[in-house]
Structure formats: C-alpha cells, structure tokens
Amino acid sequence: MSTPTAGRSARPRKRGNPQRRTPPVLAVDVGGTKIAVGLVEADGTLVHHEQLPTPDGDAEAIWAVAERLIVDATRTAGGDVAGVGIASAGPVDLRDGTVSPINITAWQRFPIARRAAELTGRDVRLGGDGLCMALGEQWCGAARDAQFLLGMVVSTGIGGGLVLDGAPYDGRTGNAGHVGHVVVDPEGRPCTCGGRGCIETVASGPHLAQWARDHGWTAPPDADAKELAEAAGRGDAVALQAFRRGATAVAATIASVAAVCDLDLVVIGGGVAKSGALLFDPLREALATYAGLTFIRDLRVVPAALGGDAGLVGAAKLAISAR
Ligand SMILES: [Zn+2]
C-alpha cells in the first residue's frame, strides 16, 4: 500500500515512548471534507495524525483513502494497535456497523466497522462524530469535570453528542445528540436532513453568512463565516446582528436540550465557535433568558479545547472503554 501524499499532514504532539507497554489505539475520523487517522496513547495523547481530503467518487474510492491512512498509521505503530475507534459523520447505525453520512452521498449503509476490522484484525468501535467530540472533550479537553454533557460542533453544519451519567449515550441506533436538527423555527427553511427550520438552517456558518448577505452585508461570493467574523470584529452592524441571531438560536437549543437531559455543561467547538466572544457573549446573554428552570440556571457553556482532534481522541476513548 502506498503512502498518501496529497494533502498530507503529520502533526505529532510528542514522541511515542519506546518503552511503552500498551500499543496505541488507532482512531479514525470520517467527515465530508476530510478523513483523519490518528494513534492515541492510553492517556489520551495523540502521537500520530494524518489526514486527506474526502474524495469525490464511489464508495470504494472513499474507503481506499481511509485504508491508506489506516495502513500508514498501523505501520507507524510498529504493526500493533490495541483496538480501533471510528468517529463518523452521521447518520450511523451501530446495530450493523454502517454509516450513511448526509455529506458523503456515496456511502449509504457503508459497512465501515466490518471493513476496518477486516483490515486491522482488531476489535472496532463506531460512534457518531458528535458523540466522539463530546467524549474526547470529557476525557482530555474542556469538559473533564462534566458528568452530564452536551458537545456541540458549530461549523459548516451543526453536530453534537451526549455524555450522560459519565458515559457516552448512543440512543437506539447511535444517533442521539443530533442537536443540529433541533427545530428552532417551525416555519423556517428546508434543511439538508429533509426537515425544516432546524438550528443548522439558522446558525451554521454558511447560513450565518447567507443571512448577513440577505440583510445587506457586502462581501465577495466565497466569503464565509470567517470573513463574517472579521467584519463583525470591525464593528459591521449586519455581521454583528448575524452572530447575535445565530447565538440566540444556539442558546435556545442548549436550553431545550438541557431541560430534557438535565445537563451540567455544554462544550462548543467548530469553526463558528472559533469566533469566540462574538458567539459566546450573545449566547450566554440569551441563555439567561431561555434557561428558566432552576436546575439549568447555572448551566455552564464553554469553548472546546481539543479543536479538530476531539473526534479522534473520543473515538480512541470508545475503543479503550470497550476493552
Ligand atoms: Zn435538519
């Protein structure tokens, strides 16, 4: 198997310890724009990380990219990994180990768990990418002290996952925590999920930028939430209003989920969350309006700490917890 080259990135955090007794866990994170594979030590340290763009093409072409990355990482680990954890964009189906990501249309019920087990000869644990993000942040990131946690990714789309009573909560099929599809506007826009008025159609990066354009923000056609955040930082009134509107919808969603699940912490990552106070200040302000019940009035909302690595770290935690 050849070594991947295009788009390759290797970001070792720290040298692996040649004396280590336990082989690392191999972690895979599959998304619509990239496929990442890492090696994670028993203490959560990411010691190897490579990623490649998710290709256009058929199901096997996409798997071939994952396979190259997995083979390369296994070789880096000296041929021995302790187990395999996979985080995938959803929907997933844990009952048969398949994934059908909305943003990878060529994968419909793709049997990723079986294919990874055949390739590595190791036990494989599969989880939604939102769940793995929440779990990663709880294990090694901004949510270490949380027992009832919602992890949320606000980016091109909006994803999420739940850790309840200290353990990852899968739901019936593995898709619990899909907070991007909480309806915040019953008369709202159609959503990629097939529904309407989901928070993803209000507060995701592309929709923030679109709302701003519709209300007079002048920006180049390819400008997105990053440029919108820069405009807001310069005091652009429409850009500021776009963030306030998105943050208010996120706050409404958080208050609703917190009331249902009795949460103690919400951790938010993703590109839009990187805009910092632009999102978090109006979010906390709005949350004070929506979180009326006594048991959620002190709910904490914090930025994620692991960035794009949270899915890999959480996938590894899934695999380690299964041993
Ligand atoms: Zn939706």
Structure description:
With 323 residues, the protein is an alpha/beta fold. The chain is built from 9 helices and 12 strands. The strands form 3 sheets. It has a 5-stranded mixed β-sheet, with helices on both faces. A 5-stranded mixed β-sheet has the order 10-9-8-11-12, with helices on both faces. The two termini are 29 Å apart. The structure holds zinc ion. Zinc ion (ZN) binds next to loops.
Strand order of the largest sheet: 3-2-1-4-7
Instruction: Give the mean pLDDT.
Output: 93
> What ligand species are in this complex?
zinc ion
Biggest sheet layout: 5 strands, mixed
Shape type? globular
- Low-pLDDT residue spans: 1-16
Please identify the structural class as seen in this structure.
Answer: alpha/beta
Helix content: 25-40%
Distance from first to last alpha carbon: 29 Å
**Would you list the SSEs in sequence order as H and E?**
EEEHEEEHEHEEEHHHHEHEH
Rg (C-alpha, Å)? 20 Å
Number of contiguous helices: 9
Number of strands: 12
What fraction strand?
Answer: 15-25%
Task: Present the secondary structure layout.
Blueprint: E1 25-30, E2 34-40, E3 46-53, H1 59-76, E4 84-88, E5 92-93, E6 98-99, H2 112-120, E7 124-128, H3 129-140, E8 149-154, E9 158-164, E10 167-169, H4 200-203, H5 205-214, H6 225-233, H7 237-261, E11 265-269, H8 277-290, E12 300-303, H9 310-321
Parallel strand pairs: 1-4, 4-7, 8-11, 11-12
Antiparallel strand pairs: 1-2, 2-3, 5-6, 8-9, 9-10
Zinc ion binds at residues 181, 191, 193, 195, 198, 200.
